Amino acid sequence: MRKNVWKAAAAAIAVCMLVMVAASLFIEGCTKMLETTAGNMVPMKCHWVFVATAIVGIVGLVGALCSFVCSTKEGRRVSSILVAVCAVAAIVLTTSLGIGICASAEMACHQKALFVWVPAGIALVISLVQVVKADPKAADAPKMKL
Question: Where are the alpha helices (DSSP H) in 28-146?
Fold first, then answer.
């Protein structure tokens, strides 16, 4: 992948991760508190899933920035794999395989989860392409004629 295309893809991933972090932190989700048997009030589990996706998104943003500045094939590949793992982790955290969100479809966390799934999915696809196209010298290599 050429240097300009690589940097544009890394910038697109960084924007996706920023959107995911911003959505996780700033879009209003479920504001209800749950009462424990001891009488304490605790946040719902969707609060914690979006705290976790914000942390995962920050790690993915660091991976995208590393991908932006890396010039070797190994550095590019490792940073792209880090972003892919973070994107998958963010998606899994919001499902029943991870922490999960509220069961009721009317709850605000379902709309908030869309703002995590879409950018994470886009970042996942771009980072998988980057893993395959990580060699900077392959773009300058002569093409084979058929």
Answer: 45-69, 73-93, 108-132
